[in-house]
Amino acid sequence: MTITDLLVPTYRNMLRTLRGLLDKAEAQLGPEAAGALLSARLAPDMFPLATQLRFACVQAQEAPMRLLGRMYAPLDALLDEGRNAGEQPGTLADARTRIDEALAFLDTLAPDALDGAPGDAAIALTLPMGLTFDLTRETFARDWAIGQFYFHVMAAYAILRMAGVEIGKADYVPHMFAYLRQAPAANPATGDPNG
């Protein structure tokens, strides 16, 4: 499996999951109550739902940009929007727009865009608090990019669940139903699925 094969479908699946979770919250609670959840938090020192959604969108774009060796300055506005979402959570439409923008970005990537060549330069990952990690492309994808993305997706799921939105595992991994084995058709004469 290549890095592109790992990251891009994962990001697509889970961004669509986030969109579906928002749709379900709105269907169950109504637009106003669901929109109010954008300010909800799991704990006082954690970011609200609006930030979790935006940061998931950032992760789905920043990791590919790093792997492509591109500057990711265009994401600075989205990062700032996420950091300020406690005071300005925006609307459900805003959140859906950010998800759609991230999906549209992923659609621009070629099937092997993130794979690079063996021996490509390491990735220096410097965090805002000053820590720097030296990673290969593979360890960056596996140990950082996937984990960071899922952290924000799961935080968003947990906030919605905590707020009373009726969601479960099937809502978190709806893409898995594409792989569901179908039961064999029963023999019309005997009713037996084995013949």
UniProtKB/TrEMBL annotation:
SUPFAM superfamilies from the xrefs? Answer: DinB/YfiT-like putative metalloenzymes (SSF109854)
Q: Which InterPro entries match?
A: DinB/YfiT-like, DUF1993
Q: What is this protein called?
A: DUF1993 domain-containing protein
Q: What is the lineage of its organism?
A: Bacteria, Pseudomonadati, Pseudomonadota, Alphaproteobacteria, Sphingomonadales
